[in-house]
Amino acid sequence: PTATRWISANERRQHNDITDLWVSWLGSVYDLTPLAQAYADDPLLLPILKRAGQDLSDWFDPATSDLRTHVHPLTGTVAPFTPDGRFLHVPPVMPRADWSSDHVACPWWLDRQYHLGSLSRQARHIRIVNTLTQQEDVLEVCGEETLTQIQDRYLMVNSHAKGYMWKYLGALLDMTLTLQENGIPDETAMLHQLAMDPVAWLPTLHVYFSDDLTVA
Predict the structure, then answer these.
(1) For residue range 10-24, what is the model confidence (pLDDT) as tens digits?
(2) CATH classification of the domain holding 69
(3) What does DSSP say about strands 164-168 and 136-142: parallel, antiparallel, or unpaired?
(4) Are 129 and 207 in contact (CB under 8 A)?
(5) Residues 6 or more apart from 185 whose CB is under 8 A from it?
(6) Are both 171 and 188 inside the same structural domain?
(7) 106 and 197 assigned to the same domain
(8) Which residues pair with 21 in a beta bridge?
(9) Where's the Cytochrome b5 heme-binding domain (predicted)?
(10) What's the half-sphere exposure (Cβ side, CA atoms, 13 Å) at 55?
(11) 3 near 15, Cβ under 8 Å?
(12) Are residues 12 and 109 in the same domain?
């Protein structure tokens, strides 16, 4: 099975305009860029654009994974609750000649094609030291990720990351396990309580270049 892709809130926030639009709701992250491009001139895109890069869980009912509803004060009928204004694929409260439910086979919030991954609840930072070059890098990672997934993030810094062995305090790490499972807890909260700078006390992982040139 494909490993879950974990995405931090900070990562989501960086994708916050019509050309690159991520949002999250109910624990999942979605890339709505294709939707935004297709409806760029539609005013019903505006409520989504205003929340680009943000979490939209307040729009959704956790029990149904669908839009929250309320009894509309004008019609007395149950209607979608849209506190930021009506948006794409939400039917109007009153019948309109320019609206037909036939136009929307699947509303965007139920369309899995936009799903990217899961929203991390355990974003944390680590320091990685390349023992070959002595370069140090601080990465934000997700606590739910395995070391292999963190290694994939490190590829953005070091394109040969797959050719390195990963160690912590001299011990070889199990790449199939998370940081916590490898005995590397997140002590950020404790350090804050002790009025200590978490950045100065980040766990440091050392990567050692391997001679296996088949991994490049």
Answers:
(1) 999 999 999 999 999
(2) 3.10.120.10
(3) unpaired
(4) yes
(5) 179
(6) yes
(7) no
(8) 16
(9) 4-120
(10) 15
(11) no
(12) yes
